[in-house]
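Run log // design_07
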């Protein structure tokens, strides 16, 4: 009886930890195949508050801001080593990949974030709170991502894009950011006001594109590429503009 109770308690504790880990804001489908258009969701799993805060103590998310690396001045690694070349050495068509699916099912307001050419590199939604005991699904679609034909890409089996997300529970200037006003699903060491506080770089969501065609045998298990946004891009693209005005942070 005692033994059963201990087992049950340990299971409950480990489940609680698992849930906490999975309730960070993430993509519903974090891995997609190359060449395939995929409908996806940003899943807002909980409101603002320190990790371990109970659901009832959390503050509801009233909006979220999502930024994909633009691939222009992004930081690229190849098998964990800094890579000085271009993203086009690995992916032939990065740019204008994500697109928000219009919906007022969760939030009343939404908009795309674009670069100077009009390519979508992120989006925002907001306007009303997600109840703290529920998930918020923000629907979007990624168009087909293609591996480059360049020899540099020949042995690459996957490319992982880190997606920076800020869940907003109260509109403040960046000086007002805290665990109760924002959920920072961002890198911890870019040096921007949006950086997640923490020693581990476990903030961002990610989208991994995997190659479906077989690699040449000489490639072995293949190489992995990772792409992170620059600080300049996060500073430029994370704020939310609405009707020509920056409405967050402010
Ligand atoms: Cu979490």
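design_07 sequence
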């Amino acid at each position: 009886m005692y033994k059963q109770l201990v087992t049950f308690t340990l299971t409950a504790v480990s489940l609680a930890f698992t849930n906490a880990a999975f309730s960070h804001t993430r993509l519903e489908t974090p891995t997609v195949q190359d060449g395939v258009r995929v409908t996806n969701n940003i899943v807002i799993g909980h409101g603002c508050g320190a990790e371990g805060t109970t659901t009832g103590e959390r503050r509801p998310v009233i909006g979220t801001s999502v930024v994909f690396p633009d691939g222009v001045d992004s930081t690229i690694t190849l098998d964990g080593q800094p890579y000085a070349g271009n993203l086009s050495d690995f992916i032939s068509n990065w740019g204008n990949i994500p697109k928000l699916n219009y919906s007022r099912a969760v939030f009343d307001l939404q908009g795309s974030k674009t670069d100077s050419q009009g390519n979508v590199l992120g989006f925002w939604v907001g306007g009303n709170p997600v109840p703290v005991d529920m998930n918020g699904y923000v629907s979007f679609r990624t168009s087909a991502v293609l591996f480059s034909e360049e020899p540099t890409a020949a042995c690459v089996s996957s490319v992982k894009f880190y997606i920076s997300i800020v869940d907003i529970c109260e509109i403040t200037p960046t000086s007002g950011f805290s665990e109760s006003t924002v959920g920072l699903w961002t890198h911890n060491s870019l040096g921007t006001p949006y950086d997640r506080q923490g020693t581990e770089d476990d903030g961002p969501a990610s989208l991994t594109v995997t190659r479906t065609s077989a690699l040449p045998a000489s490639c072995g298990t293949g190489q992995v590429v990772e792409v992170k946004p620059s600080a300049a891009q996060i500073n430029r693209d994370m704020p939310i503009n609405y009707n020509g005005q920056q409405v967050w942070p402010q």
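DSSP finds two helices and 16 strands in the chain.
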